[in-house]
Amino acid sequence: MFVPLDAPARPLGEIITDLLISHPGANQKELIALGAKQGLSQHRLVEALDAGVLSRTFEARRGARGALRYYLPERRRGESA
Predict the structure, then answer these.
(1) What is the phi/psi pair of residue 48, to 5°?
(2) How many domains does the chain have?
(3) Rounded Cα distance, 5 and 15, in Å
(4) Torsion-angle region of residue 39: left (phi > 0), alpha (psi -120 to 50) or beta?
C-alpha cells in the first residue's frame, strides 16, 4: 500500500478548523505558516480555505487594510480543538 510521506496525518478540514479555533481572525499568510507546521502545503491550504468559504464552512471577513481574516461561522465556534 502506498502512503505519501508528506501528507498530513489528519484530514485537511479538521486541521484548518483546529487552526481557526485556536487562531480566530488569522489572515491567509498566518494560516499558511501555521499549516506548514501541520504538514500542509501552501497550495492545499489556500485551495481548502477558498472551498471552505464557498461552502460556508469558514468565513472570510475584510479586516484592517483590506486583509481577509478567517473565522468559523457562529454555529461551529463551540467546537473544541
Answers:
(1) -70, -40
(2) 1
(3) 17
(4) left
| Residue 3 counted as domain residue | no
**29 within a domain of the structure (yes/no):** yes
Inter-CA distances, 49 with 5, 6, 23, 60, Å: 23, 20, 14, 9
SS3 6: coil
pLDDT in tens, 29-76: 999 999 999 889 999 999 999 999 999 999 999 988 899 999 999 865
CA distances from 2 to 9, 10, 11, 45 (A): 14, 17, 17, 23
Please indicate, yes or no, if residue 53 is contained in any of the structural domains: yes
Return the residue matching grid coordinates 485537511. 12
Range of the domain at 45: 12-58
